[in-house]
Every structure is written in C-alpha cells, then in structure tokens.
Design goal:
This protein is of the alpha/beta class. The protein folds into two domains: 2-98, Ribosomal Protein S8, Chain: A, domain 1, CATH 3.30.1370.10; 126-339, P-loop containing nucleotide triphosphate hydrolases (Rossmann fold, 3-Layer(aba) Sandwich), CATH 3.40.50.300. It has eleven helices and twelve strands. The protein has helices at residues 21-28, 33-42, 59-77, 84-98, 134-145, 159-172, 199-217, 220-229, 260-267, 294-301, 322-340, and strands at 2-7, 12-17, 45-49, 52-57, 120-123, 127-130, 148-152, 178-182, 232-234, 248-252, 275-280, 308-312. It has a six-stranded parallel beta sheet with strand order 9-8-10-11-7-12. The protein has a four-stranded antiparallel beta sheet with strand order 1-2-4-3. The protein has a two-stranded antiparallel ribbon with strand order 5-6. The chain is globular, with a radius of gyration of 23 Å.
C-alpha cells in the first residue's frame, strides 16, 4: 500500500492505492456505499477507481479518511465484513487515535488520550468484535474493571448485545461457569404461572432480544446444549429472591421496568466470583403511573459506591441504523419541549 498527497490552500488531495483489488472492493462496499457513507460523515469527496482512491477535502479530514480506509482494509484482511457500522467505528477510532476530526459527542467516561484503539471482545463464533464508538469503548472497559455495571440509554446502542458477547467471552475463557439471564415480565404482572409451557417457554417472549444476541456469539447447538445443562439459565426476576449467584455472569435486561424493591433484591444476589450487568432505557418505562423505576433509583443511590460502573449512552451512540439515531433524537427533543412547557409564560386569565 502506498500513499501520496498534494495540498492547496482550500483542499488537499490524498491518493491511496491498495495491494489487492478484491479486498479493496470489500472495503468500498456494494456500489461504493461505504465510501458514500464516509463522505456524508466527514464532509469530503472520495473517488474510487479499481484499487485506487482519491480523497479531496480539508487536510485534517482527508488524513483521517485515509487512516479510516487503511483500518478497514486491515479488518478485511482479517476476514471481517465491512458495513456502514464498521465505517462509523473506524471513524470514531481514528478520532480517538489522533483527534484529527473533532468528535461529535461529549466525553462522558470516554477513552483516555493516547490509547491506540478501541476495546474489543473475542468469541469463537464471532472472532474479534471491536467497539464502534467511544461510549461502547467505555462500556467494555467498565465491564472489565467493575463487578457491577449499569448501562442505560436508548435502543440500538449495543447495551445488551455487547453485554451478552462479553458474558460469552468470560464463559469461553473459564473465568465464570455460567450465564444467568433475567428480565422483568411487566406485561404479565410477574404472574408467569398463567402463561403456557415450562419456565423457559414462559419467559421466552421477554428474553428474545437476549437469545438473538446469544445466537450471534455462539453456535445454535451450543446454546441449546448449555440451556439444557443449566450453563445458561433463564431466571425470571420474580423467582430470584433468596438465591446467591456465584461464579456467574448475571444479566438483567430492560431494568427500567423493575421496581425499587425488585432492583435491591436483584443486586444483593451477587455472589463470589460473579459479575452483574444491568441494562435499560429510562425513557421507556412501562411501570404503572407513580411507580418508581428501580434502575433510575439504583444509578442514583450507587453512583459513589466503589466497584460499580455506570455508562450512559445517548442518541448519538446509536449504531443499529442511522434512522434509529434520528428517531431517538427527535423523541428526546420532543420530551425536552414537554419538560420546558410548564415553565412557559401563560396568558393572564384576567385578559379573557
């Protein structure tokens, strides 16, 4: 691979030639969609011809685009399929490495300067999975550093998916012996006995997102085997009372729908050699009106407790689909208006 550049006062042309045409085409994407996505994100022009690329834009941004393309090329060499998500991740990572392009997110529990790359998890099926943005990077670091981690934020930020991947990695490395999955069944009022089937079948509808993540990181036959042998356990929140969970990763999903009593009960189940991951979205609480969310209360009460990590994702951290990010942002903006509305100046009734 070779690169050369010529600069002008307004813009810089950066030329980049890849060694392998086939790998270069995988980097560019179908109909160069990955290059088009990078153009939109960075505000420059990228032209591809075979294995040759010309980048036109301000020097710092053009240089960042070059680093992004080189990073994506190395990922393709390792067998990773490049999508717009990987492009976003490479852009965020290049920001972390050289601050060539100012980040669009505020730095709340972000990576310290000077780190070479984002954190990653590795499983047998998925191989190496790297964080796609600084919030996910902070999340993976928190999972390694703390025995209890709270992750809250909107849908599509990877809270549950990364938690499951991290749990599978710990099991495959022999650090823990089992994975315990739990989720409040708010829609059924926790009265799971009225639902048909055995315990697993009763809670399957509520844990489907977690199952989807499991199948992403494990072979289907291994998931079924571990469910049958109890290595992966489905533990409805209603039935967790009185247990001590040792040598396990315990994941509580949709935690915004726990009550204060349920959350305290769950957190005090933590046993020797175990890790707890609590995920939820405080903007989607389904509890009855007036009922306090256990997640909201716990993150406030435990904010200064040693050994507890807390990561807050925001709309800019959504990686599921660009439209999801815009949807979340629109709803957040509307909720902001509703909060401000009571403070607006009202018309004097005497004028009626």
């Amino acid at each position: 691979m070779n690169a050369d550049q010529s600069s002008s006062n307004a813009t810089t042309d950066v030329s980049l030639t890849f060694d392998d045409n086939r790998l270069a085409s995988l980097v560019f994407g179908l109909y160069d969609q990955n290059l088009a996505h990078m153009e939109r994100r960075l505000g420059l022009q990228v032209t591809a011809n075979g294995n040759h690329v010309v980048i036109k834009g301000p020097y710092s941004v053009a240089e960042q685009a070059r680093h992004v393309l080189e990073s994506l090329y190395e990922q393709v060499r390792e067998g990773i399929t490049i999508t717009t998500g990987e492009v976003d991740g490479a852009i965020e990572e290049s920001t972390l490495q050289g601050t060539l392009f100012p980040p669009k997110t505020e730095k709340v529990e972000r990576s310290p300067s000077g780190r070479a790359s984002f954190e990653h998890i590795t499983t047998r099926k998925r191989g190496t999975v790297k964080a796609r943005n600084m919030a996910q990077d902070a999340y993976l670091r928190a999972l390694r550093q703390h025995e209890l981690v709270f992750a809250e934020g909107p849908a599509g930020t990877g809270k549950t998916w990364l938690a499951v991947g991290y749990a599978v990695q710990l099991m495959e490395q022999g650090i823990v012996e089992r994975l315990i999955l739990s989720r409040p069944a708010v829609e059924a009022g926790e009265r799971l006995g009225f639902l048909p089937g055995d315990m697993r079948e009763k809670v399957d509808p509520y844990l489907r997102p977690v199952y989807d993540a499991l199948y992403d990181f494990m072979e289907a036959r291994h998931v079924e085997r571990d469910l049958a042998t109890g290595v992966i356990e489905i533990a409805p929140l209603a039935f967790m009372r009185g247990r001590t969970l040792t040598n396990a990763v315990v994941l509580l999903d949709e935690a915004q729908n726990t009550t204060s009593m349920q959350m305290k009960m769950f957190l005090t189940r933590l046993g020797e050699g175990s890790r707890m991951i609590v995920t939820g979205d405080p903007s989607q609480i389904d509890l009855p009106p007036g009922q306090k969310s256990g997640l909201v209360e716990a993150t406030r009460v435990l904010s200064d407790v040693e050994g507890v990590g807390h990561i807050r994702f925001r709309d800019v951290d959504v990686v599921r689909h660009p439209l999801v990010r815009r949807i979340v942002h629109a709803y957040d903006r509307e909720e902001g208006r509703l909060i401000e509305k009571p403070n607006e100046k009202r018309e004097d009734p005497k004028a009626w």
